[in-house]
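[agent] plan:
  1. take the single chain provided in the ticket
  2. run structure prediction with default settings
  3. attach structure tokens to the ticket
  4. add a short note for the reviewer (M.T.)
[agent] executing step 1
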Amino acid sequence: MSIKNIQKLKRFGIFHNHTNDNAKDFGKYNLFYGWNGSGKSTLSGVFRCIENKTDSGKFPSSEFTVNTDGGTTITQENVVQSDLNVYTFNQDFIDENISWNSVVKSILLVDKAKIEEREKLEELKKKHKTDSEAYSKEAAEIKKLEEAISKFGTDSARRLKMSLQSIDTSDSHYLNYNKTKFEAFITSNLNATEKDASLLGEEKIIELTNAAKPNQKNLISFTQQTISQETFSKAKERLDDLLKTSVVSKTIQRLVEHGDIKSWVEAGLGLHKRHNTNQCEFCGNTITEERTKQLEAHFNDDYKAFQDRLVKADSWLAGQYIQAPMLPVASDFYEELKKEYSEACTKLEKATTDLNEEISAWHTALKKKTANPLETGLVVEAIT
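[agent] step 2 finished; step 3 output follows
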């Protein structure tokens, strides 16, 4: 069994990505010739790998595919299991097996037919030299810029750390600020830094500057007032019950229709009983016993008990109006918080007004009910 062809060489010396597309298969005897550096010794390195049953030590990331006339394929992956016997005499063999005591002068034979290729090689060497010099110059510029960027990061992180040292804070991120953290911040915000527009407006810069000042304000104490939605939900259920409730009595229609007259007559009936008289203080006429019984039937005990419930409900509801709390003055706050605090105060004032207006609507309905306990058509909305 012998080698048929070298199907692929990748990252193997000068063979960056060779394939066997345009090459003939090997014969019984094969001659490799070419300029120095054209890859002859590198090819012997492939055969050396097969001989030693190992991958290339010179090119550790290289790949190769060698086909045999027996139909097997040898690669860097399976070369250890290869049973192909190959013997290679090259520089590696000489270095490993021969010790020279003197230097042998090399003899170079030049084929005239290869003069053009030689001239092209010289041109490529000159271009390589020019490119190498340009690369070295660019590399030096890049290194200079990298050093400037590194110094910028170090200086910026130091300035930030010194600016924040006077702040009493438990946030160790800034108290231990360094170049690494600064560069991480720049990297994560790279797109924003490439824009011409300022990342922060003038007002925001002033706000942050004021926030970073070590001025110490006095502690603000404030008692929070909690408003229970559950309380208002239960209150509506009870109020709905009161507004829909009526009492059984021998009603006097005129008193039902005119709440103000009802209130006046009810108060007068109580005064007459207290002063034990049946003389009308308004017209001077005598109030008959029959008329007194009619009025008492209208204002019976159930009526009075229900009236008492209405009065107590009115008293409770009067205590539910929200009183504006004693708020700290804006000057007690740090400068960067004053605007937000003032806006919050305005919202609080509006919320308080809206809630009191809804309670007032309840109160109005309750007063109508109190003025005419027999009215059952009053309705209230839930507190929002």
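[agent] step 4 note for reviewer: Residues 160 and 306 are 73 Å apart (CA to CA).
[agent] ticket updated
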